[in-house]
Specification:
Blueprint: H1 3-19, H2 24-40, H3 45-59, H4 62-66, H5 70-86, E1 100-105, H6 112-125, E2 130-135, H7 142-153, E3 157-158, H8 166-180, E4 184-189, H9 197-210, E5 214-220, H10 225-237, E6 242-246, H11 255-264, E7 268-272, E8 280-282, H12 285-292, H13 298-308, H14 311-322, H15 328-340, H16 344-349, H17 367-378, H18 382-386, H19 393-403, H20 407-424, H21 429-435
Parallel strand pairs: 1-4, 1-5, 2-3, 2-4, 5-6, 6-7
Antiparallel strand pairs: 7-8
């Protein structure tokens, strides 16, 4: 996420760090580099001009020029201004009315249907009873796609009747929700390749008919300025209450995220960070600014750990490490816990690009390798998992056949296990429990 912009900004900060005391001329050069980095990241030119202007006012200051750590001073200023640029934190859906109506709009391919499913799951987890409405009557198979998405999250889908237009469907969805006991209606609407006057008029009429509490634009963050332009157009026609940035995990530049709030005057409410139904998060400007600057997103990482890690299992592991009883079985169980937090590439994205994590990259993670490790350990007998020293040549060949790997990979696993066990000998179980937030 934001790798290109992140790399260029870090290069600029490293140059400042190498200067020690800096002159106004050096700071001006750093600001020019930041300006170019933002433009290359597809940030709107008006946004870049205003942003760099604010940086200049704050950076060309005697405190920064006299500072022994000008790079840190400038990083703090850039982070503060990024947070201001990104706007307020996202907030949960406003639920009022019986039923509450949430209308989704956006360009074709922006991820509306997938996002509708994510929102439905989020509402369901909050104790609500949502109804998905297949209002995309333009795209072939759109209704079937939403039916599959709804089935995946366990939320019913109201499909159009033969010859029914979107206005009649919208009105019928209100009546159906009341009859079936649904308190939230989520309407997926037709996308468009560009801003189309006829379709814009259609969605405006739909909004007038169903009176949505929330009208949310789903924008593909990877399309950069196209997402910003579409947000401007939709905001002109509809009273948008927020933007959901989809596919943020694949956004290498960050132009849409950094521009959309300032240009379209619409807050970012949620961000899509993966393909799974649960991969929708409230927007956090502080976290995004930290990621852009390579500082990681420790808060989101902690939340993922709280959701994915089993406290009892973590405590059990801490006690076993304290007794120096760490086995291959424990290694497998911990790998499974970590993978419940989500793809490890996403976890690595949240780590700071400094200190002990400097040089780590999401591309270094081989998820298939972790699957093979689990398969190797599962192919062992309980005794072999607890006492790896019994693994001789014939046993290794049997395990290799059972897990579909080579004997060489078995040997690599055992070597890594021995190194991990040796490292853990210096770790106190009490310290591990404290680090995990356990008593």
């Amino acid at each position: 996420m934001f790798d290109g912009l992140q790399g260029k900004l870090q290069h600029t900060f490293r140059r400042l760090k190498g200067e020690g005391r800096v002159s106004e001329e050096i700071l001006q050069e750093a600001l020019r580099e930041i300006r170019l980095a933002l433009l290359e990241a597809d940030v709107h030119f008006r946004v870049v001009k205003a942003f760099v202007g604010r940086l200049r006012e704050r950076a060309i200051d005697q405190k920064v020029l006299d500072s022994l750590t000008p790079d840190q001073q400038v990083i703090k200023i850039v982070r503060d201004e990024l947070i201001t640029l990104l706007g307020e934190p996202g907030w949960e859906l406003e639920l009022s009315g019986r039923p509450t109506v949430i209308l989704l709009c956006g360009l074709q391919g922006s991820g509306k249907t997938t996002t509708a499913g994510k929102l439905a799951l989020r509402l369901k987890q909050r104790g609500r009873h949502p109804l998905l409405v297949a209002g995309d009557l333009q795209r072939a198979a759109a209704v079937e796609q939403l039916a599959q998405v709804g089935g995946g999250v366990g939320v019913p889908v109201l499909e159009p009747e033969p010859g029914e237009d979107v206005l009649r469907l919208g009105r019928r969805s209100m009546k159906a929700a009341q009859e079936r006991g649904h308190d939230v209606v989520l309407i997926d609407t037709a996308g468009r390749l560009h801003v189309d006057d006829r379709l814009m008029e259609e969605i405006r009429d739909l909004a007038t008919a169903v009176e949505p509490t929330e009208t949310l634009l789903v924008a593909d963050s990877m399309t950069g300025q196209d997402a910003v332009r579409s947000a401007e157009e939709f905001a002109r026609v509809l009273p948008l209450t927020g933007v959901i940035l989809s596919k943020l995990d694949g956004d290498m530049r960050g132009g849409a995220a950094l521009s959309i709030r300032s240009v379209a005057k619409v807050p970012i409410r949620f961000v899509g960070v993966g393909e799974k139904s649960g991969d929708l998060e409230l927007f956090r400007p502080e976290s995004m600014a930290s990621r852009i600057l390579g500082m990681g997103d420790v808060l989101s990482l902690i939340e993922k750990a709280e959701e994915g890690l089993d406290a009892a299992e973590t405590q059990r592991l801490a006690e076993r490490i304290a007794k120096q009883e760490f086995t291959l079985e424990d290694l497998r169980d911990q790998l499974r816990q970590m993978r419940r937090m989500g793809p490890l590439s996403q976890i690595m994205e949240m780590l700071p690009k400094a200190g002990p994590f400097k040089g780590l990259d999401a591309s270094m993670v081989d998820e298939k390798r972790l699957t093979r490790v689990e398969a190797m350990i599962d192919s062992m007998t309980p005794q072999e998992r607890r006492e790896p020293r019994v693994l001789n040549g014939s046993r290794k060949r049997r395990i290799a056949r059972g897990s579909g790997v080579s004997v060489q990979e078995i040997n690599q696993l055992l070597k890594q296990y021995r190194e991990t066990r040796k490292m853990l000998k210096g770790v106190k179980g009490k310290w591990l429990k404290k680090a995990a937030g356990l008593r």
